[in-house]
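Budget justification aside, the reviewers requested a transparent look at the raw inputs and outputs of the sequence design task funded under Objective 1. We therefore reproduce one unedited record. The lines immediately below are the structure tokens for a 183-residue chain.
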């Protein structure tokens, strides 16, 4: 997985999810394939207009940037997405600087979601603004293994209740569930 730009051609057969035709994911130097996979899955599951697959710095004084996010016209962060975070003290610091943002923490397994929930509680973060989105570890591993510089994702179907998704990624068919823990 060399390089820093990953292109994904998107198609949607779901009339409720009108994905753009193409996105470009920028890989940050510290990110591994699992981070890009979680970003892509989060983007597809949570898609709404103006959701950005690549985060941007919070502001000039605060260099932190989310994995993915959504900003309003005034440049304020409305949704801050973190993929597979390890430093919850950093999350606490950024959360205090974005008091109105909704947060989505995306992880690659249910056990990591439970650990993230415990870390949010341990760090005494304000309840009611964090959701932890988790996927199946085998699904994340397989997509990460097949992630290339040029990719195709065809979204067939997805629902929030029950949380299910069906899609094709680079010619591989996936029919899976995901979960959400609200904190």
């Amino acid at each position: 997985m060399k390089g820093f730009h990953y292109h994904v051609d998107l198609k949607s057969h779901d009339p409720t999810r009108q994905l753009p035709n193409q996105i470009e994911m920028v890989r940050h130097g510290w990110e591994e394939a699992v981070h890009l996979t979680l970003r892509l899955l989060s983007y597809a599951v949570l898609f709404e207009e103006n959701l950005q697959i690549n985060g941007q710095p919070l502001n000039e004084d605060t260099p932190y940037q989310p994995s993915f996010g959504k900003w309003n016209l005034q440049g304020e962060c409305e949704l801050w997405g973190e993929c597979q975070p390890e430093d919850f003290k950093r999350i606490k610091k950024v959360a205090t600087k974005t008091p109105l943002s909704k947060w989505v923490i995306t992880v690659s397994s249910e056990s990591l979601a439970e650990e993230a929930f415990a870390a949010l509680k341990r760090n005494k973060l304000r309840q009611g603004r964090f959701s932890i989105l988790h996927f199946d570890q085998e699904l994340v591993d397989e997509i990460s293994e097949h992630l290339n510089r040029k990719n195709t994702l065809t979204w067939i179907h997805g629902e929030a209740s029950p949380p299910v998704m069906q899609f094709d990624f680079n010619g591989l068919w996936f029919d899976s569930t995901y979960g959400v823990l609200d904190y």
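The radius of gyration is 16 Å. The mean pLDDT is 92. Computational costs for records of this kind are itemized in the attached budget.
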